[in-house]
Write a structure and sequence with these properties.
single chain; 303 residues; mainly alpha; DNA polymerase, domain 1; hpI Integrase, Chain A; 2 domains; three-stranded antiparallel sheet; 14 helices; elongated
């Protein structure tokens, strides 16, 4: 296993502070460490808290040249700004060079591409059921589209996270450590129950690899979605994230309030959902029915 790079003691102290005092999730701390590590490499022998604004701007230009997205750049600036606040409180610097600084281009967010209802129908109909692996893959695709889960959330699901009686899935390891409960559409629930019966056992990962019987990883999920998209003859590149965007977009089209969609997707706030949604009246339960929760969209699986 590759050893973790030890950063400047002040940075390590900040990361420990985030964990022990700030109680930040491990994923958040890893993300911040990654940002500060890249900054440290760029800084060389100069401590980050000695950088002026011009040096940070030059670093941002270097990151743009490396094809970092505006949102990633904005996140990195936020990480650096919070660390500089810590350095200032520690007496290492007399100012925060990034105080009040924001990226204008990070606010120009594009609408993520989603499947049309017709494309979603073709995709689901293209998922085969001939083998146990086919049925596992179909179940994963159904949950991604029918429940709007992130890829890592799907990979982290265990059998006990599925409440068959209440027809819900509990996402215990959402982004930022947030937990949520997502309702399962009727057609997805029906096939998920059949998958659980075939899978057997009351514990362990909901979706396992075929040979080593370990929890599936992002590559397994991506392959399942990609295969279904190719079989459905969808010309553009479809990923697991596409199905999450499709879930949100179809809920919006069904008239679900943006606040409800925000909760279902595990967003921090409705403003985060607003990248591709507009406030509409409605309820989640009604929307799930409107998600063509019948055979004309969910389709009959291939034999």
């Amino acid at each position: 296993m590759r050893e973790r790079m030890e950063l400047d003691p002040l940075i390590e102290g900040y990361l420990s502070y985030m964990k022990d005092v700030g109680r930040k999730p491990e994923g958040t701390i890893r993300d911040v460490r990654c940002t500060l590590k890249r900054l440290s490499v760029a800084a060389g022998q100069t401590p980050l808290w000695k950088w002026d604004l011009a040096r940070f701007i030059r670093w941002l230009d270097e990151e743009r040249a490396a094809d970092r997205s505006p949102l990633t750049l904005a996140k990195n600036i936020s990480h650096a700004r919070q660390f500089l606040d810590y350095a200032w409180r520690s007496g290492r610097t007399d100012r925060n060079a990034l105080d009040g600084f924001a990226l204008q281009d990070a606010r120009r967010r594009t609408v993520p591409r989603a499947l049309s209802l017709e494309e979603a129908e073709r995709l689901l109909a293209a998922c085969r059921t001939e083998t146990a692996l086919d049925r596992r893959n179909r179940a994963m695709v159904l949950i991604l589209y029918g429940c709007g889960l992130r890829t890592h959330e799907l990979c982290d699901l265990s059998v006990t996270d599925v409440d068959a009686q209440r027809q819900e899935i509990t996402v215990r390891k959402g982004k930022g450590g947030r937990q949520r409960v997502v309702p399962i559409p009727d057609s997805v629930h029906k096939e998920l129950l059949a998958y659980l019966l075939e899978r057997g056992g009351k514990r362990g990962a909901l979706f396992k690899t075929e040979h080593k019987k370990r929890p599936v990883g992002p590559a397994d999920v991506g392959e399942a979605v990609g295969t279904a998209a190719r079989d459905a003859r969808i010309a553009w590149h479809v990923t697991p994230k596409t199905l999450r965007h499709t879930y949100a977009t179809h809920l919006m089209d069904a008239g679900v309030d943006v606040g409800v969609i925000s909760i279902l997707m595990g967003h921090r706030s409705p403003s985060e959902t607003g990248v591709y949604l507009h406030a509409l009246k409605g309820r989640a339960e009604d929307a799930l029915d409107k998600l063509k929760d019948n055979d004309d969209v969910w389709g009959e699986p291939k034999e």
